[in-house]
Specification:
alpha+beta; 13-stranded antiparallel beta sheet; 11 helices; transmembrane helix; low-density lipoprotein particle binding; transmembrane
């Protein structure tokens, strides 16, 4: 009797082992596909997907940190001496973003406006919004540059107008005025006689257009029908390409709107997005893989050619006329003011630029940008995007306010937009997209191993009973 019982137990174990082994083997075949389907379902822009609410109201707290270049020697610059600046800041703002007017279109795309608003964070900042700072008077110096090739009589009228309005080449204003706008008699004058030259009605500020406003109407592919184009921008403000630059390649709207990318990245993937602020598409490249709070990430950084000029990197010729390499002329999309975009402190640019201004210290640690993206889903976990805005200034013959200023690209501000996933969204993300897949991944091997062990029992039993 006991022998029959043992034989039955061995048979049951053997059968269980066979089941486990088969299940494990099936899982090895099926799980990757299941995980892939799970990811596909959860990253597309569709109200049923896991990332839809993340996409709609970004749960990551974003911060905008601004550093100002306070001018130490404004009077000396007017006499033709080398500018000296002192970095002030950061002045930190919490950035809130939400999408509205979300409209699903019939061609597998969705259109939306993304609104942004900013709140000053005194505890994170190094100074207050009421701090005074000496800055170039952008309106005066830009207007002077635009007059460079106009008749002398017009320049003299302008000098007179500037004097009457009390306008000078440098100004001493508070952080909040420079950021969010100040009243300037020059704007009223220009808007009166030359309407539609400036986008500003009333106040002029470096970030005035950003607060409580949107960055244009984006239309992006949802990935519901055709997965291969997920998150790619179809149109921006109804355009499929912009007209700021001189080549089709530079005018192309490539990549995503900069919040999510296609899943299943490899180190060969590049991170492309369209930036309304820079009026162009940017392309970041893979640097290394790492971990963020237990989540595997790929780090993407700016290639050295991002702001290279046309002679260093031919495809960028369309962004010219260029000055030295490493700064990009954005005047065509900034009402023709001679403004330039670069990395902070002219990092990665022609050394001549940083040497022309005292007080600049470019270094990789503080001034390079990165995005850490979860490669399986294409969702950013931790990012820090840093850019600098500079103004090209020089003496213009006939406009007295410009004195003897030597031509120089003078940094105005640099800013960092940073955000890292944290708290509950991070936990949900980790559980569903990292923990679950790895549990399934290990389960298949455990089942297979268990199955083999259980299958060995009847075999060993058979050998021993003989």
């Amino acid at each position: 009797g006991s022998r029959a019982r043992t034989r039955r137990a061995v048979a049951v174990l053997g059968f269980a082992g066979l089941l486990c082994a088969v299940l494990g083997a099936v899982m090895i075949v099926v799980v990757p596909t299941l995980i892939k389907q799970q990811v596909l379902k959860n990253v597309r822009i569709d109200p049923s997907s896991l990332s839809f609410n993340m996409w709609k109201e970004i749960p990551v707290p974003f911060y905008l940190s601004i550093y100002f270049f306070d001018i130490v020697n404004p009077d000396a610059i007017l006499l033709g001496e080398k500018p000296q600046v002192r970095e002030r800041g950061p002045y930190v703002y919490r950035e809130f973003r939400h999408k509205s007017n979300i409209t699903f279109n019939s061609n597998d795309t969705v259109s939306f406006l993304e609104y942004r608003s900013f709140q000053f964070q005194p505890d994170k900042s190094h100074g207050l919004e009421s701090d005074y700072i000496v800055m170039p008077n952008i309106l005066v110096l830009a207007a002077a540059m635009m007059m460079e090739n106009k008749p002398m009589s017009m320049k003299l009228i302008m000098t007179l107008a500037f004097s009457t309005l009390g306008e000078r080449a440098f100004m001493n204003r508070t952080i909040s005025e420079i950021m969010w706008g100040y009243d300037d008699p020059l704007i009223h004058l220009i808007n009166k006689y030359l309407p539609d030259v400036f986008p500003f009605k009333g106040k002029f500020g470096l970030f005035a257009e950003l607060n409580n406003s949107n960055s244009g109407l984006f239309t992006v592919f949802t990935g519901v029908k055709d997965f291969s184009r997920i998150h790619l921008v179809d149109k921006w403000n109804g355009l499929s390409k912009v007209s700021f630059w001189h080549s089709d390649q530079c005018n192309m709207i490539n990549g995503t709107s900069g919040q999510m990318w296609a899943p299943f990245m490899t180190p060969e993937t590049s991170l492309q997005f369209y930036s309304p602020e820079a009026c162009r598409s940017m392309n970041l490249v893979y640097k290394e893989s790492g971990m963020f709070e237990g989540i595997p990430t790929y780090r993407f950084v700016a290639p050295s050619t991002l702001f290279a000029n046309g002679s260093v990197y031919a495809p960028n010729e369309g962004f010219c006329p260029c000055l030295e390499s490493g700064i990009q002329n954005i005047s065509t999309c900034r009402f023709n003011a001679p403004l330039f975009l670069s990395h902070p402190h002219f990092y990665n640019a022609d050394p001549v630029l940083a040497e022309a201004v005292l007080g600049l210290h470019p270094n990789q640690e503080e001034h390079s940008l990165f995005l850490d993206v979860h490669p399986v889903t294409g969702i950013p976990m931790n990012c820090s995007v840093k850019l600098q805005l500079s103004l090209y200034i020089k003496a213009i013959k006939g406009i007295g306010q410009t004195g003897k200023i030597e031509p120089v690209v003078l940094p105005l501000v640099w800013f960092e937009e940073s955000g890292a996933m944290e708290g509950e969204p991070l936990q949900t993300f980790y559980n569903q997209l990292v923990l679950m897949p790895s549990v399934l991944h290990y389960a298949q091997y455990v089942l297979l191993a268990l199955g083999c062990v259980l299958l060995l029992i009847p075999i060993i039993h058979q050998i021993r009973s003989q």
